[in-house]
Structure formats: C-alpha cells, structure tokens
Amino acid sequence: MVSPAGVRDGDTLRLGGKLAWVSVLSVASGLPYGIVFLLVPVYLRDGAGAELSFITKVTSIATFAWTLKFLWAFLIDRFGTRKQWILVMQVLLAALILAVAVIDPIAGAALFAASVIAIAYASATQDIAIDGYTIALFEERELGPANGARVTAYRVAMIVAGGLLVSLAGETGWGFSLAVAAAIMVVMFGATLFLPKTATPLARATIVDSIVKPLNDLFTLPGFVPALLFVVAFKIGDFALQYLRGPFWVDKGFTTTQIGVLVGTVGFGATIAGAITGGWLTSRLGVFRALWILGLIQAASNLGYFAAATLEQSLTVAYAVVIIEEFTGGMGTAAFLAFLMSICNKRYAASQYALLSAAFGLGRTLIGYGSGGWAERMGYAPYFLLTFALAFPAFLLLPWVRRLKDAIPSAEARAAAS
Fold first, then answer.
1. Distance (Å, whole) CA 90 – CA 153
2. Which domains does the chain have, with CATH numbers?
3. Which residue(s) pair with 8 in the sheet?
4. Which of 147, 202, 219, 313 is 20 to 30 A from 230, comparing alpha carbons?
C-alpha cells in the first residue's frame, strides 16, 4: 500500500515524508483544541447570547482535559497501537463536533457543555497518541525540523478553527461551520488510515515508570516546589485574559467575520512571529533572563485590552491590541517552554514534560473558571487591569527558579543517577 507521502508501509521514511505525516497529525491535533478554546466562546456569545460566566466555566472545565492527560497516558502505551488510538479518537471527535452543531446551547445547556468537554478529552487522548507516535517516528537529529513542522501545522489548524470557521459562521451560520469542522476531522481520519508504522515498538510503561519515578526525580531538585508554583502562576495574567477575548470583541460590536480575521488569523500569525522571536532572544539572553524580561513584556501587553475597553469601537485599535498581545504572548511562551524543557531529566523527558504541562494547565483552568463572573461584576476595563496585576506574583518566585536552575546537574550526570 502506498501512503499519501509516497512511501510504502515498512520502508524507511525520508525526512520529508516524516514531516508531511507529522504535519497532518498536528492539524488533527490543533483543530479540536481551537474549536474548544476559540470557536465555542464566540459561538456561545454571538450565536446563543450566553452569559460570560457560563462561557468561561464550560471552556475552563473542558481545557482541564489537557491538564489531566498525563494520568491516562500510560494506557495508550499499554493497550493497542498509537495509530489505533488516533483513528478511534478522530471518529469520536467528528461525531462530537456534529453534536455541538445540533444541540441548542441554551435549551440543552448541560448536554452542550458535556459535548464540548467530551471533545476536549478525546482531543487530549489523541494528542497523547500523536506525541508518542512522533517521538517514535523521528531520530534525535530530526527533532528540530519535526517540532518546527508540528508548531506551524498546529497553529494553522487553530487559525482554521478560530479564524476561518468563525468567519464562515458569520456568512453561513454556526451549524454549517461546525459541520465543516466535523468534515475536516473525517478527512484527517482518511489520511491517518495510511499512517506508516514506526520502527520503534511501544514502551510498555507501568504507572510507576510513568508517574512516580519522574515525580521523585523532580521533587528532589533544590527549590522545585516554589519553581512548580512559578510554573502554575507564570501565565495566569494571560489566561485570565484569553477566555474573554472573543466575547469582549463581540460585546464591542464587531461582527463574527471581523473577529475571525482579527483573533483567529492575524492574532495567530502574530503569535507565530512572537514565538520565533522569543526563541531567538531566549538563545541569546539565556533561559532565566528571558523568563523575566519577556515575561514582563508579556504582562504589559494586557494593558492594550484595558485601553480598548475604555475607547470607542475602532478596528485599527483592535488590530493593534491583538497583534501586540499575541506577539508578546508568543515571546513569553517561547521562554517559558524553554525553561520547562531545561529542567526535565532526559531519561524521563516525556513524562516530566507532561507533568509540568499539567501544572501549567492548572493555572489556566483555575483562573478561567471564575473569569467570566469577575468580568460581569467588574466590567471589562477594571477586569483587564486585574489581568495585568495577576502576572506579578510569579515574578516573586524567580529567586527560587534561579536556585533550581543553578542546582541542576549536567544532563548526563542526572540521567546516570536516575
């Protein structure tokens, strides 16, 4: 059988073929995340007139799936193949997206919320299998271009979900737009059927190997507990803002087409540019200096939303606010992810990165759950000032972060001691 990349199953894939496959998988990964995190909030506010508190509660509970996914990650390694897990999740995702398209979000609020949450858990499970497949597919020297392809394809998928599909909803209605999203997942399923086998067999990891040993290795590092609190808190200000960006632009009077272009297309383009710039700056400043310098710039950008909330509606102002906030957020994220990778033991890199990502996601869920209610009580302008202030507790923990960084032994010595 010949795959779409032009390589027969069982043959050794060239790098170009591998990059093509990982790009396909990353589109399948990014689309449902974009639907939950970007499309659904705009749909609920614009298409259903839902209250902000309902919007942020549904979204934050749903995104908790990506926080918890390390808990069942070992199941993907113990049962079936990664390809089988990916295929099953893609069928489930297509069905769930169609369910969201036909359920009335107000009359059937509980069922609608349950469907959105189910999309998140199916998507998180698909991500686990895709991550495992990608690690098995690529050799170490190929990981640089592999991650570049993954990030680009993932962002493209999010642009489709938060930009093109939102804009399409403005022209054709939300039901049709969500049906198109489900059709895209069906196409991803068709492509995944031809996914080549990997040379690396599944590692039959136990719960101890997946969770206990990696945790013990991290918690024995000096200053790790305060550093873990830093991981939870670093993006709190950004997360407090992110849940309300779409509803804010709706309430400001912009059309769904304008919001789709503004947030989902221009915004994500700025995020990609910011991430590239942030990666370049981090390599020159060093991880610790980049954390606090780019983190402060990231926090300051939230003031743009405060300005937009106090000014009259202006598309020019909206573009400036979104571009600056997304660009600086991309820079801060690049430095932050470099920090997470730098404290992982190479022997437990996948498990530890999943655990640290879970702590990172915990901040997103905790702040997101109540953000809609706070914004309703305070008003947008005071709330956006609060998001700026919420960024600063993380910086109080930087002395412990530096202690941790200085105390970590060399990668070789740490792996040998594990």
1. 17
2. 1-204 (1.20.1250.20), 206-418 (1.20.1250.20)
3. 2
4. 147
Rounded Cα–Cα distance for residues 211 and 348 (Å): 10
Closest CA to 380 of 299, 298, 307, 297: 307
Residue type, 232: V
In contact, 278 and 333? CB cutoff 8 Å: yes
- Angle at CA 359, nearest 5°, toward 230 and 28? 130
Asked if residues 169 and 47 have their Cβ atoms less than 8 Å apart, the reply is yes
Question: Helix or strand or coil: residue 4?
Answer: coil
Which one, of 85, 64, 71, 65, lies nearest residue 351 by Cα? 71
Phi, psi of 260 (to 5 degrees): -60, -45
Write down the H helix ranges in 252-302.
256-259, 267-285, 287-300
Q: Where are the beta strands (DSSP E) in 209-334?
A: none
- Residue 196 Cα to chain centre, angstroms: 26
Contact 185, 98 (CB under 8 A): no
- Nearest one of 205, 177, 188, 43 to 122, comparing CA atoms: 188
Regions of the chain where pLDDT drops below 50: 1-11, 144, 200, 202, 411-412
Q: What is the pLDDT of residues 105-144, one digit of tens each?
A: 888 889 999 999 999 999 999 988 887 787 677 765 565 4
Closest CA to 265 of 151, 163, 170: 163
Q: How far is CA 213 from CA 20, 192, 354, in A?
A: 35, 33, 13
Reference 22, options 161, 177, 121, 134; nearest CA is 134
> Which residues make Cβ contacts (< 8 Å) with residue 203, sequence separation at least 6?
77
